[in-house]
Amino acid sequence: MGDPTAPPVSELAAATLKDSVPPSAKSLMDSFTDRVLVRTILSRPGGGADLAGLRVPICGLVQTGRVQGKGAFAFLEVNDGSCAADLQVMVEATVADLSTLVPTGTCVHVVGMLKVPPKLGAKQKVELHVEEVLHVGALADPAKYPLPNTNHPKKKPTPEYLRDWTHLRPRIKEFAAVIRIRDELGEATRKFFREEHGFVHVDTGIITTSDCEGAGKMFQVTTLLRKDEKQEKELPLAASPAPAKIDYSKDFFGQAAYLSVSGQLHLETLACAGHKVFTVGPTFRAEQSHTSRHLAEFRMVEAEIPNADLEQDMKCAEAYVKYMCQWLLDKCHDDMQLMAEHDKGCIARLKLVASTPFIRLSYTEAVQLLEDAVKHGKKKFEKKVEWGIDLASEHERYLTEVIFQKPVIVYNYPKGIKAFYMRLNDDSKTVAAMDVLVPKVGELIGGSQREERYEVLQQRMLEMGLPLEPYEKYLDLRRYGTMKHAGFGLGFERMVLFSTGIDNIRDVIPFPRYPGRADL
Amino acid sequence: MGDPTAPPVSELAAATLKDSVPPSAKSLMDSFTDRVLVRTILSRPGGGADLAGLRVPICGLVQTGRVQGKGAFAFLEVNDGSCAADLQVMVEATVADLSTLVPTGTCVHVVGMLKVPPKLGAKQKVELHVEEVLHVGALADPAKYPLPNTNHPKKKPTPEYLRDWTHLRPRIKEFAAVIRIRDELGEATRKFFREEHGFVHVDTGIITTSDCEGAGKMFQVTTLLRKDEKQEKELPLAASPAPAKIDYSKDFFGQAAYLSVSGQLHLETLACAGHKVFTVGPTFRAEQSHTSRHLAEFRMVEAEIPNADLEQDMKCAEAYVKYMCQWLLDKCHDDMQLMAEHDKGCIARLKLVASTPFIRLSYTEAVQLLEDAVKHGKKKFEKKVEWGIDLASEHERYLTEVIFQKPVIVYNYPKGIKAFYMRLNDDSKTVAAMDVLVPKVGELIGGSQREERYEVLQQRMLEMGLPLEPYEKYLDLRRYGTMKHAGFGLGFERMVLFSTGIDNIRDVIPFPRYPGRADL
């Protein structure tokens, strides 16, 4: 078996395979590992058939395996995480104990010869004929393996089931594809901001003592609690005033501390020094949201642009979303094809968004359109539409999915429903805020021009009954050399939902955190 | 003043300057803002002199300003955050009230003509003569501005002082350079892992319920505490067993939750499915460390390599550090020059690390060398050196700074001082762990090959008195299709310290968190 002029297989099994495989195979080796990636083989023009005759090591997990020819040989579909496709691997019974190799989930590290399959018209243009088995990671008990038959269309585990197995979920092909798509969206984000537009990436603080008027309920971070001791005695309580309060001067940061709900304030300190900045922070909400679109821990891409107004903010947000869509079309063909098996429209959706100018609509115009739809009997909403309301998800989705069937940017919202820091428009009724709405998920981006006028900002805060003292540093940015600036935040997991067509946000993040669950 | 054939300046002040400035200036405009970046001008070959005659808008903060010519004009040094250099800006008294423009910290948005300075041999090859002032962000009270005279070498604020002004610190030139260097190190990280070596970036979980044998004391994350209410009544206490414990089934995640000290476990779940992965997570330590090298919140770059052993892990770590050093030499010339004003050796250090193979030394050899140094009277250590001790910072720095004067990788540590998950070597005394030590900071990277053998791992855990139950998922990775794998973590702020030569780790992160402080 094998080419007699090739070096003996035992040499290939030496500690560093890279140094011993023939040069042509060596050049294909995955860096820092003892394998050639399945992607490297199958992504070649011609599907890898040009590599026939090469001896290569591969390492991955068996997706399905079957013994054939009355026990003479076995076929394994092996996935190594590098791409959606499996490599077909043939092992003869003379080479290894086939029964330990075939269970789904087995890890195999093998060296073999790449050959063109004898069957004409085979799906794969090349398969591996094993010459030596370097390692088998067998299943302790195949009957107990939580993810059997993952390639069997009728026995595929449900997303709900897989959430109980987050430590094994990356072995599922569809989930691995989502991980790669996430990764590419992250790369597109950096390319767009850094390379295309000169933004600097900044790490904002995750733990914060700014207990400001925020976007949501906050998690508290503390070292005061002790899991296994008598707790009441442990909590330092200030003697007065009654009722007793916890004395946070004894806590780690000398005061109550929280997990950040947004990096905006931090980014503003940089933008107000002229820096174009962005961050991809983990952000947190301690709300009891049991929906398919909320997580307790998620990633938000936030950008802050010095010397910019709302118009430029909207331009930047639109360009960013388009860029990500085009990026996936360019870079993730195979993984997007896999997504399209569940959501046929997902690729067309990316194309639409990448190529169509977004609709721009003032809040006032949006409300008018929604009121007209109700008046003409086209649509009933749960929540009544009238000028001044905060648009609900049903309104947003009607605008983007039904009326326009494309992304819509709604801007100039009533000041009463928006945060104090958004810039007051000349009408004194609306603020320079904007939301980007897209089909499938609704609100994807929220942003605004920030109020840079010290007196106006202070006035707005007083109007809203906010105390000034906790915001002194924020006011400092306006007090000393103020600059117009604008920014926005994009819910990164919502972008993954939009791109992949996956239904539940818990399935587009490797380790989802939501009420009652923070596995691992 | 100005070119009579150019369009009237008032047109330049229109909302979107991009559409109205002459085409040649338009092509230089910073995207999504109303300015040309100072970097765009000064980084041109010839220092921007070729742009003389162009009318451009700029926007930034005055570093120093002085009125001259008996009040006829003022010179402003303006920095816009895009580079370390300021642009010299000249304003005549006929154009604006000079007294509001000159205070340090004032924001100016101006349109002017670029001209070659009349003075021969001037430091800058081009300066801006203002034609119209679009906006002035004046200082409410210049005397109260916390950062006056930042360009004055003798009046420069100290790093300690600046830590009290994290919201204004990005205006300090040296700090802005550190932010840009951080950004470039982050980019080098992604380029190295993703583009050069095919790793996938993964978001690991920040909040975790894994209360495992960890790298350090953990912060707790909770929604049980209430700042402003009577606390004892609020904490749900389980009735039994006595003494009363907090009932964490009532907490947000249904059990006690913490901030992650490492993404390793999460990355291992992916590596064990074949994925080459890395993350740049915020990680947390709730230790009362008041040193210049510890933070409560920091970034750790962690990589996990499937199908790899310790040798490949070390290769990857060395290649990564070298890559970052070369990247800074290639991309950050001006900012590194600024760093060299305080630490003359910083550029030479980058060159050394980028070009010299790292020393590889077993722990046993390292201890021998240190013992020899003591025996021969070359060095006294606070902590006695003998086989079996955990090397202290003084030992590590002696190895890398005195004995070898270059980076050193120490590997194969005694199992007694290392974590349970590190792979047991054949000698049964040492584990396949490694630390990368570099001059100036000591330990920069820690890593290991992970124990992939189920029985050996379980045996190690029992030896160390660890309960198996909380680690069942970790054991599952070995129980079902185990694969050899290895990984490491790099303290990102330590890499910034090493690169910049800055003394205190609190000054290389925009929003430092340490005992008693989490400003903003």
TrEMBL record, chains A, B:
GO cellular component, one term: mitochondrion
EC number(s) reported in the record: 6.1.1.22
One annotated GO biological process: asparaginyl-tRNA aminoacylation
GO molecular function: asparagine-tRNA ligase activity; ATP binding; nucleic acid binding
Location of the Aminoacyl-transfer RNA synthetases class-II family profile domain: 179-510
Coiled coil regions in record: none
Keywords for this protein: Aminoacyl-tRNA synthetase, ATP-binding, Ligase, Nucleotide-binding, Protein biosynthesis
Catalytic activity: tRNA(Asn) + L-asparagine + ATP = L-asparaginyl-tRNA(Asn) + AMP + diphosphate + H(+)
One Pfam family this sequence matches: tRNA_anti-codon
SUPFAM superfamilies in alphabetical order: Class II aaRS and biotin synthetases (SSF55681), Nucleic acid-binding proteins (SSF50249)
Record-linked InterPro entries: Aa-tRNA-synt_II, aa-tRNA-synth_II, aa-tRNA-synth_II/BPL/LPL, Asn-tRNA-ligase, Asp/Asn-tRNA-synth_IIb, NA-bd_OB-fold, NA-bd_OB_tRNA
Cross-referenced PANTHER family: ASPARAGINE--TRNA LIGASE, CYTOPLASMIC 1-RELATED, ASPARTYL/LYSYL-TRNA SYNTHETASE
Family recorded in the similarity comment: Belongs to the class-II aminoacyl-tRNA synthetase family.
Name of this chain's protein: asparagine--tRNA ligase
Organism: Turnera subulata
